[in-house]
Specification:
365 residues, mainly alpha, A middle domain of Talin 1, two-stranded antiparallel ribbon, 12 helices, 1% strand, globular
């Protein structure tokens, strides 16, 4: 017992959140040079990885599909923290940061995570199996949330520009929360079996690869997860000027900052989905992908809508025409992928090409 506790306390995932807080204390309120900026960036990335690791431990303890839900919420908390801190430090010019980040998260989850998982799973097992009922319901929720929160603001006429009026923004925020809550109840209570891995005969697979952690280990990971989230929020605020300066120095548009945030936040989620695909648990990979997209919109938009009361400048949520086309094509392709309940390398390749198109157009609109 003592040896196991010592090993836990000395592991990199346990040490990193504490080091992240120490780096934050040293960097807070100071004018940082290039070396310290690089150190903060490394600490931020490592702390994000550690946070998601501890979320995975808690998720493994509570089991599926609750586990995927815990991961998605943890990732979204980090995403909201990054967006709000950068909007506060960036001033009025960051009014579109929430839109850029959420749209990037949707494209990365529905095309990147799904595409890589399908490719890895199909390459190893020939084809991948999943529950079309659960995945289809999740995809429908993603499409509805994205349309209500990101597409409609580009077509409303109450206020100039791609923005909601206060009444419209309130409705979008409340609708997002209702849809998210309904999805959570469906996934975890009413139709839990729709979101569990399936075998070729349609039977639900039991995950017997590893014993769940003890209550003590899960509680320890929960405490370290909270410490890591505090460190991530603070380090993001410290690092935000360097991120924006790096995007400008590379010659990329300001909107690419949102892509950087989404890539940083969703990298650990991608690794977890790929590991599930390698174990022939494609349903878990899709739960992670679509669950993260739903949480990204369903929790981020209400949080940003509430924060917009204090944030400077207007909150711009409406997508441009190019982004709307990419979103529509993604939804159509995703429907064709999910409906059969079986996919091959081809579907994975199609989704990854869509992700590549999004990244190219984000760099060169």
């Amino acid at each position: 017992m003592v040896a196991a506790l010592r090993s836990f306390l000395l592991s990199w995932t346990s040490v990193t959140p504490v080091l992240g807080v120490l780096v934050l204390a040293l960097a807070w309120g100071r004018d940082l040079g290039p070396v310290f900026v690089a150190l903060v960036a490394v600490a931020l990335g490592a702390t994000v990885l550690a946070a998601v690791h501890h979320a995975e431990v808690v998720a493994h303890r509570v089991g599926e599909p609750f586990g995927s839900l815990v991961l998605a919420v943890a990732v979204t908390v980090i995403e909201v923290a990054l967006i709000v801190t950068m909007m506060v430090s960036g001033g009025p010019d960051t009014g579109s940061l929430a839109r850029d980040t959420v749209f990037a998260a949707v494209m990365i989850t529905t095309n990147g995570i799904v595409g890589i998982s399908l490719l890895v799973g199909a390459r190893r097992y020939g084809s991948t199996l999943f529950n079309s009922e659960g995945s289809g319901a999740a995809l429908a929720t993603v499409a509805t949330l994205a349309t209500l929160s990101l597409v409609l603001p580009a077509f409303t006429s109450s206020t100039p520009g791609p923005a909601f009026s206060p009444t419209q923004l309130t409705f979008a925020a409340l609708a997002s929360l209702v849809l998210y809550g309904t999805f959570v109840l469906t996934q975890t209570v009413r139709h839990r079996d729709f979101f569990l891995p399936v075998a070729a005969d349609g039977a639900v697979k039991e995950d017997d690869h590893a014993d769940p952690p003890s209550n003590r280990a899960a509680l320890g990971s929960l405490a370290l997860l909270l410490v890591a989230l505090v460190a991530v929020v603070g380090l993001a605020k410290v690092e935000s000027p360097a991120i924006e300066a790096g995007v400008r120095a590379a010659g990329f548009p300001q909107s690419f900052v949102g892509v950087v945030i989404a890539l940083l936040v969703l990298l650990p989620e991608t690794l977890a989905a790929v590991r599930a695909a390698q174990r022939d648990r494609m349903q878990i990979s899709l739960n992670l992908a679509y669950g993260s997209a739903i949480a990204s919109i369903g929790l981020t938009i209400p949080a940003i809508a509430l924060a917009s009361v204090w944030l400077p400048g207007r909150l711009l949520l409406g997508l441009g025409s190019t982004q709307i086309v990419l979103l529509a094509l993604t939804v159509v392709v995703s429907v064709l992928t999910v409906v059969p309940g079986r996919a091959t390398r081809l579907q994975g390749g199609v989704h990854l090409v869509l992700l590549a198109g999004f990244l190219v157009l984000a760099i060169n609109p």
